[in-house]
Design a protein that fits this description.
Radius of gyration: 15 Å
Strand content: 25-35%
Structural class: alpha+beta
Number of helices: 2
Helix content: 25-40%
Shape: elongated
Largest sheet: 3 strands, mixed
Oligomer: single chain
Order of helices and strands: EHEEH
Strand order of the largest sheet: 1-2-3
């Protein structure tokens, strides 16, 4: 899960902070975890939670299954290969 917080009056939305480069880092970390725990047969997905604050008010937006490991690696069998 990735959580991003931004001010309501800010120039960018929180979901815009999840760049392709950040997704790549999350995917690499997930691949290391799956390899370390011999869990390549388990599904791996990523949720995104955005927190927008406007003074003392917080608004949450949850994007379940924002992306998954297979989509990030181009699909096919590539997601299940630890190298």
């Amino acid at each position: 899960m990735e959580v991003k917080t931004r001010a309501a009056s800010g120039p960018a939305r929180p979901d815009e902070a999840l760049t392709p480069a950040k997704r790549g880092k999350l995917v690499r970390a997930a691949r290391q975890y799956l390899a370390a725990h011999d869990a390549w047969d388990r599904p791996c997905r990523f949720d995104l939670v955005c927190v927008v604050h406007d003074g003392a008010t917080l608004t949450l937006e949850h994007y379940p299954h924002a992306f998954d490991l297979t989509a990030s690696l181009g699909g096919g069998d590539a997601a299940w290969q630890p190298w």
